[in-house]
Amino acid sequence: MANATGLISAYATCTGRRNLSSYGISRSGFLSVERNMKRVFLCSAVEGVEGHASGAPSSKPRASRLLGKGCKLVGCGSAVPELMISNDDLAKIVDTSDEWISVRTGIRNRRILSGNETLTGLAIEASRKALHMAQVEPDELDLILMCTSTPDDLFGSGPQIQKELGCKRNPLAFDIRAACSGFLLGLTTAGSFIRAGGFENVLVIGADALSRYVDWTDRGTCILFGDAAGAVVVQACNDDENALLGYDVHSDGDGQKYLNATIKDKEAENVLGSNNGAAGFPPGLSSYSCIQMNGQEVFRFAVRCVPQSIEASLVKAGLTSSSIDWLLLHQANQRILDAVATRLRIPSDHVISNLANYGNTSAASIPLALDEAVRGGKVQAGNIVATAGFGAGLTWGSAIMRWG
Ligand code: ACO
């Protein structure tokens, strides 16, 4: 699999476990500080067992730790598929053009899963990079949140990722399904587990393969999406170091009609024989329809709700938009990024955008763009990043965080 950040030479040269300065992260004394915090939580969540649940695990709890109520981001990583599809490639299969797509969306290329690639594989690659940057071993993870709406396993991919990463203490791993808001909700969920539950190291993954649910004959949607994965490590710290400064999250099921991929039943005979149709039991195998979207309504929703949400997060953080070093929105459409930046009076050179290369990668877009910006030296330690996710559900939310 290609490295999304393979464009950035710093990655290849700066992966030493003790040298995080090139990522903008200073960890000097960090562990010793946090392990001596005053606030005490019982870490039942991390008192895992070694070995596999299916075997006879030996009960070997990790020592209870003294944790603070803050949390900070200490590492990021990303991965994208090999196969790149350009606008010109799409123009060969639907009635569109590079000019229309790039002018209306800013997108020029996207990556699509192919061959033996899996979404879980991308998520694992992104996770390993994030753990490496964070200097956190898989065994130190207390929780894995896999934010995806397109898992390889209907029941969730989190536990599979946990296994592949080699987390022997069986930390909790589960999926969060909230489309393009998934990563943002994963981030705030990580913060909640750390603050209320005594968890210390939480891996938050945003990964999606919407190419699986795109109607490749629909030029209104197939031009938008790409596949990718990104991950961050969120770590407990004391209150003084807290870097998740404020957040705001919402949903509105009434807007589901504007963006969905709902379940549809296949003909019963395809699956379970012919004697199940009349009574409706047993039911036929189900699948999901392709993505249905009213682009204009989704556009209006994003441009209206995202600035409001960021302003609400700023208030909670006790900051104003002039404090924002980087605006990092879900990478849906350059015109949405521009409109939100204009409303918040954020100059365009403070807006992170990589959608030209990857399109809308749903839950992956924020951690993918963050990873590129960190490894490329744009986002530096201490920078204030305003991030926001929005999409199907409808769901949306924002967070103000300090990197490093
Ligand atoms: N190529 C050429 N023409 C096109 C294409 C295309 N790919 N797609 C649409 N058109 C045509 C339409 O048919 C229409 O033609 P008409 O005027 O003859 O009827 C014309 O272009 C304008 O179509 P609109 O839909 O009005 O175009 P718009 O400027 O709204 O752009 C777009 C469409 C890019 C989808 C935009 O609405 C958008 O980005 N919306 C937001 C989508 C989004 O952000 N989703 C995020 C969430 S995704 C998730 O959560 C899973």
UniProtKB/TrEMBL annotation:
<comment type="function">
    <text>Catalyzes the condensation reaction of fatty acid synthesis by the addition to an acyl acceptor of two carbons from malonyl-ACP. KAS III catalyzes the first condensation reaction which initiates fatty acid synthesis and may therefore play a role in governing the total rate of fatty acid production. Possesses both acetoacetyl-ACP synthase and acetyl transacylase activities.</text>
</comment>
<keyword id="KW-0443">Lipid metabolism</keyword>
<keyword id="KW-0808">Transferase</keyword>
<protein>
    <recommendedName>
        <fullName>beta-ketoacyl-[acyl-carrier-protein] synthase III</fullName>
        <ecNumber>2.3.1.180</ecNumber>
    </recommendedName>
</protein>
<comment type="similarity">
    <text>Belongs to the thiolase-like superfamily. FabH family.</text>
</comment>
<keyword id="KW-0276">Fatty acid metabolism</keyword>
<dbReference type="Pfam" id="PF08545">
    <property type="entry name" value="ACP_syn_III"/>
</dbReference>
<dbReference type="GO" id="GO:0009507">
    <property type="term" value="C:chloroplast"/>
</dbReference>
<keyword id="KW-0275">Fatty acid biosynthesis</keyword>
<dbReference type="GO" id="GO:0033818">
    <property type="term" value="F:beta-ketoacyl-acyl-carrier-protein synthase III activity"/>
</dbReference>
<dbReference type="GO" id="GO:0004315">
    <property type="term" value="F:3-oxoacyl-[acyl-carrier-protein] synthase activity"/>
</dbReference>
<dbReference type="InterPro" id="IPR004655">
    <property type="entry name" value="FabH"/>
</dbReference>
<keyword id="KW-0444">Lipid biosynthesis</keyword>
<dbReference type="InterPro" id="IPR013747">
    <property type="entry name" value="ACP_syn_III_C"/>
</dbReference>
<dbReference type="Pfam" id="PF08541">
    <property type="entry name" value="ACP_syn_III_C"/>
</dbReference>
<dbReference type="InterPro" id="IPR013751">
    <property type="entry name" value="ACP_syn_III_N"/>
</dbReference>
<feature type="domain" description="Beta-ketoacyl-[acyl-carrier-protein] synthase III C-terminal">
    <location>
        <begin position="315"/>
        <end position="403"/>
    </location>
</feature>
<dbReference type="InterPro" id="IPR016039">
    <property type="entry name" value="Thiolase-like"/>
</dbReference>
<dbReference type="GO" id="GO:0006633">
    <property type="term" value="P:fatty acid biosynthetic process"/>
</dbReference>
<comment type="pathway">
    <text>Lipid metabolism; fatty acid biosynthesis.</text>
</comment>
<feature type="domain" description="Beta-ketoacyl-[acyl-carrier-protein] synthase III N-terminal">
    <location>
        <begin position="174"/>
        <end position="253"/>
    </location>
</feature>
